[in-house]
Amino acid sequence: MSGDQASEATLARQREHMVREQLERRGISDPRVLDAMRTVPRHYFIPAEYVAAAYEDSPQPIGFGQTISQPFVVASMTEHLRLTPQSRVLEVGTGSAYQTAILAEVADEVFTIEVVPDLAARAKAILDSLDYSNVRYKVGDGALGWPDEAPFDGIIVTAAAATIPELLIQQLGVGGRMIIPVRSDDPESQDLVLLTRTPEDVRREALYPVRFVPLRSPQ
Ligand code: SAH
């Protein structure tokens, strides 16, 4: 066995361990989300110097002052969207594209927006190399959404907003769910908020505190 194969085997074992210890033990139960987390090689989305930490229970730096979210947060946010193989989902904050790959495993189509052009280019390159053909990419301000492709069954925002962007709420279809970190009184963390659109109104539920980098305006 070559060194590369040995480390791939080690990383695969670490991934399985991550799914059992960090996800299943903490209550992630949607089999399609668990399958996606077992399938997507998280270490491909992480800069070489941090690969040994790819399956740790924490976020990791990805460059440009941004981070790849902790595995539990990726799985939990995905599970809350209740996506099906027919779902069309909008993601704001492509970043490393790891969350994008998880969405691409569980939904029909993923529309992802990133404000940093270099991150968007890197994201497309890695997802193309892994043969994800159901992802569309846009560079720009994700707070504006993707009106031409709306309505969406799910919207996931992976950067912290001061308030929930009205344009995103408008692009959520009836029965759709949006998950977004929203600034709270605590300057150190945000509330992870779940919005559900019913035929009559939009329901809002705060889930648990999270720490995301802020949503920024395009430079
Ligand atoms: N889901 C990503 C999270 C990356 S961090 C991952 O797990 O890798 C948040 C990302 O949101 C960063 O890449 C940042 O550049 C991007 N971002 C910040 N403000 C944005 C905006 N207004 N529109 C789109 N993307 C934005």
Short summary:
This protein has helices spanning 3-23, 31-39, 71-81, 98-106, 117-129, 166-170; strands spanning 60-63, 66-68, 88-92, 109-114, 135-139, 152-157, 172-183, 190-197, 202-210. The strands form 2 sheets. The protein has a 7-stranded mixed beta sheet with strand order 5-4-3-6-7-8-9. It has a two-stranded antiparallel ribbon with strand order 1-2.
Please describe what this structure looks like.
With 219 residues, the protein is an alpha/beta fold. It is built from six helices and nine strands; from the N terminus they run ααββαβαβαββαβββ. The protein has a seven-stranded mixed β-sheet. Strands 1-2 form a two-stranded antiparallel sheet. Helix 2 (31-39) packs across helix 4. The model has no long low-confidence stretch (mean pLDDT 95). The structure holds S-adenosyl-L-homocysteine. S-adenosyl-L-homocysteine is lined by residues 62, 66-69, 92-93, 95-96, 98-99, 113-116, 119, 141-143, 158-159, 213, 215-216.
